């Protein structure tokens, strides 16, 4: 039997792996750097938010560190985006799932079309970030003084700073929605903290991903205890 399937939670439910350790470390480092970037960025954006510059040790340090943390954030995001892109491609059932959002919200599972590892809302968040994060990097480099800004005409730097603010606004709103959804769907925080979800959670929220994972983890011919599709503890 697969090592991950042997894991059970306190209630004896079988657990399955959703995020390996490397993905979780990447995600939480990215989340922390995003929070620092958002707070220090708001401090530069408008005087009432100036006090937020203290999150990075005051205005001078905030100005120095913000772009470096931005580059780190971009690299971490790029790693995550590359490994998650496949699971965020739209599938036919996504449209039906969206149309039946009332059944989804009312937990009427029998009526809801099965979806894969991510639901259409999560996919939308993913692609919005794929749009905003590279925009933030490119426009950030264009206005990064004293290293790069001097190489570009002042109009380019001005347009870059406008686009930077728009992309930052888009990313912050998207991440607030992302956090709200993570709190709202019970069990998803556990997935990103401990890495595991119960079989029941996976079947309920992401049935096609559940089926695929179970198929992939079907016992090898030499395994002694086969995994049953409808194991009562799942
Ligand atoms: C404090 C802030 C954050 C919290 C509480 C949070 C929470 C979570 C949770 C619980 C999941 C697992 C969802 C599931 O598997 O169903 C997740 C997945 C994910 N998070 Fe976050 N997150 C935060 C910040 C971020 C940031 C800043 C980014 C990127 C800029 C990000 C990008 C992602 C991505 C790409 C996934 C995988 C889902 C997908 O590909 O659509 N998260 N997050």
UniProtKB/TrEMBL annotation:
Belongs to the formate dehydrogenase gamma subunit family. Coiled coil: none annotated. InterPro entries: Cyt_b561_bac/Ni-Hgenase, Di-haem_cyt_TM, FDH_cytochrome_b556_subunit, Formate_DH_gsu. It is a multi-pass membrane protein. This is Formate dehydrogenase subunit gamma. The chain crosses the membrane at residues 25-44, 64-82, 124-144, 164-185. Residues 18-194 form the Cytochrome b561 bacterial/Ni-hydrogenase domain. It is found in: Cell membrane. It comes from the Bacteria. Its cofactor is heme. Keywords: Cell membrane, Electron transport, Heme, Iron, Membrane, Metal-binding, Transmembrane, Transmembrane helix, Transport. Pfam families: Ni_hydr_CYTB. NCBIfam families: formate-DH-gamm.
